[in-house]
Structures are given as structure tokens and as C-alpha cells.
Amino acid sequence: MKGPSETASGNTLIIESASSSGKGGGTSYFSSLALKPQDRYKFIRSIGFGGMKGVLLVRDRDTDREMAMAIMPDFRERSASELERFAREAYLTAGLEHPNIVPVYDIGIDKSGSPFFTMKYLRGMSLETLLQRLKKGDTPENREFPLARLLLIFTRICNAVGFAHSRGVCHLDLKPSNVRIGDYGETFVLDWGLACRLDENGSITQELDGMRGTPGFMAPEQFDLRSGFSPGIRSDIFSLGVILYSILALASPFEKGSVEEIARQTVSGRIPKPSEKAPEFWDVPASLEAVALKAMSPHPLDRYPSVKAIRDDIIAFSGGYATKAERASTIKKSRLFINRHSLLIVILILLAVLAWQIADIFI
Predict the structure, then answer these.
(1) Could you tell me how far CA 287 lies from the centroid of its own chain?
(2) How far apart are the C-alpha atoms of 218 and 266, rounded to whole Å?
(3) Quick one: pLDDT at residue 21?
(4) What average pLDDT does the segment 281-290 reach?
(5) Which of the residues are catalytic?
(6) Positive or negative, the Cα torsion across 122, 73, 115, 167?
(7) 3-class SS of residue 91
């Protein structure tokens, strides 16, 4: 058995042993890959490389359309667990057919034995890039992406993650750089390379031998596997909270530092409110601030119980209702009610005044 391995993809951290992969019961994802004709795809250009994966832009000669192809350039130097992880990502993503999850078209190996899978080629930019541009202020993005539109993007992210959970899959690496914003309003959640299967209790079925995720977006239980709480649905909810925080503050909730320093900040739960880190020109509603902080609670049971619950709070805010996270007072609920029905209230007042005037005439 091989010893522990540590790899990094961007800022993603994986520390696990080769024994932690597999297709649930010993069947290998990698061994299931079928040999595909090498001349089907025409290389156009490289899109990017990171960690163990490269992405190419290719043209599928069968359908005459452009696709993104994920490859493992140095597959001969990779361990069995890394090959398995690559194939596993392809199969798990292919099984998640949802409008907000990047579709996988083909999976296989070429004649050299190199694994690959093809996906929809996504134009646009990452949510991370968008937030960086918004932080500069007075940019075209500031006019094109008001908070209301960013919240719509966030609800679509929630839809994708909630669907994955319903199919028994936990992402474990949700972050703005893994969300793609298309040129025509599309929103896609990407990079399911760390995804794990879930059991009926919402915990991952795979036993991890170390940390898995991206520091600054990982939940406390992802840092400390001896905490008594297994990573799972509520870990993804924590990461969604960090994404919402990043939208509200246009900044990360955690100060930059070593993995150990970020872990201490995450586990302690002592982080500033989004409004304390946001630029002066960026308004942070207290209702949404409460949603982000609840989702990021250090204790898993203090977070939202499901993705639907956090999404429903965002929808409530967008519709002019109080969120459950803020525990609004009766006065605030009354004010929101008046705001939602202000036109009707004005009409009723005018009708009442008119009725009083008519009655006064006849009297």
C-alpha cells in the first residue's frame, strides 16, 4: 500500500492515502474507462492547467461543436489513487444532470492509456473574477451585477448543490473560483474532483485520512476529522455561507495566512461581519449578513439543516420578507409588510378619504 499523498489544485488541499478511493466496494472507476477513438477530437488550444488536471479546447468531429476536454498530461507519473480520483470526478459529474452543473459528454481513455472526459465549453468568467472586479468600484460589472443579480446567481448555486445532495453527492470544494458565470446569464458549479458519496444521514460514506478542501472555504470538521462530526451536507452549507459572505463583503471572511492560521480562524468562528469588511460603496443588508453567519456557524448543528433552507431565506429576502436567520422583531416584520403592500395601502387610504369626502357632502 502506498503512503499518504498530498496534492494541490489551485489552493485546494488534498491529504489522503491511496486506500481512500474506490467505487464503493472495490470496483474501480478508472478500470471502467472505455477506449475511445483518438481522432474524434481536434485540438484547438490549451485553456489551463492546475494540479493534476489540464483542460483543452477541442472540436468534436462527430457533432462539429467545441468542447472542453479534461486530461491528465502526466498520467504515467500519477499514483493509482490520483488516476482513480480523476475518473471518479468524471463519473460523478456525468451523473449530475442539472441546469447549473456543467454537463459531461464523454468519458474514456485514449490509445496511450491517458484518461479524459469532455464537458460543455463555458465562456464568461468565474464568480471569483467577478467579485474582484466589483471590489474595484465604478466598473461595468458594478452596473451589470447589482446585489439582486448576485443573489440570483447564489440561488442557482444552491439549486445545483441541493440537487447533488439529493443524488447522494457532496461537493466539498465549493468556492467562487469553482462557479462559472456565462455571458448570457448561465451559472455553473464546476470541479467535482473532491466530491464524495453521502449516506442516509447526510455524511460522506468515504473514510478520509486527512483534510480535503480549500482553506478559507472548508468547514471546521473538514480540518479536524476527529471533531466527532463527519464532513457532509452541512460542510457544503458552510462553504455556501462563505460564498455568500464573499458576495456581501467582496472579501474573504478569513485573513490570509498559513493553513494552520486559517484553520484556527475557521474553528473558532470569530470572524468579522461582512459589513465590517465591505467597501464603503457596497451596501450590506443586515438580513443577509445574518444568513451568511448562520451558515458559517462553527458547530454543524447550528447551521442550516439543508441547502433548501438557506436558499429559502435568500428568496424570502428578495421577496421583501424577513429571513429566519435574523429573528426579526414584530416591528420589522410589520415594516416589511407595509413595504410589500405600500401601493395597496396608499390606494385604500385614498379610497377612505374619498369615501369620507362623499359622505361629508351628503351629510
Answers:
(1) 21
(2) 8
(3) 41
(4) 94
(5) 173
(6) negative
(7) helix
Which residues fall within 8 angstroms of residue 83, CB to CB, at 6 or more apart? 30, 72, 75, 115
Q: Which residues pair with 71 in a beta bridge?
A: 54, 116
Q: How many other C-beta atoms can be found within 10 angstroms of the C-beta atom of residue 118?
A: 23
Which of helix, strand or coil describes residue 192? coil
Which conformational region is residue 95 in: left (phi greater than 0), alpha (psi within -120 to 50 degrees), or beta? Answer: alpha
Residues contacting residue 347 through CB under 8 Å, at least 6 positions apart: none
Contact 235, 227 (CB under 8 A): no
SS3 105: strand
Assigned C-alpha cell, 229: 462530526
- Residue whose C-alpha cell reads 461543436 in the numeric block: 65
- Please list the residues that pair with 57 across neighbouring strands: 45, 68
Q: Which residue type, as a one-letter code, is found at position 194?
A: L
Angstrom CA distances, 363 to 354, 356, 359, stand at 14, 10, 6
Of 113, 115, 97, the residue nearest 53 (C-alpha): 115
C-alpha cell at 357: 369626502
H/E stretch holding 180 reads strand 179-181
Distance CA 220, CA 249 (A): 21
Helix (H, G, I), strand (E, B) or coil at 351: helix
pLDDT digits (tens, 9 = 90+) for 163-179: 999 999 999 999 999 99
**Which residue is associated with the grid cell 458559517?**
296
**Cell output for 38:** 483518438
Distances (CA, A) of 280 to 275, 276, 277: 9, 10, 9
SS3 label, residue 8: strand
Residue 59 neighbours by CB distance under 10 Å: 16
Amino acid (1-letter code) at residue 335: R
Tell me what pLDDT residue 326 has: 75
pLDDT 10s digits, 106-126: 999 988 888 999 999 999 999
Q: What residue ranges in 29-150 does DSSP mark as E strands? A: 41-50, 53-60, 65-71, 104-109, 115-120, 125-126
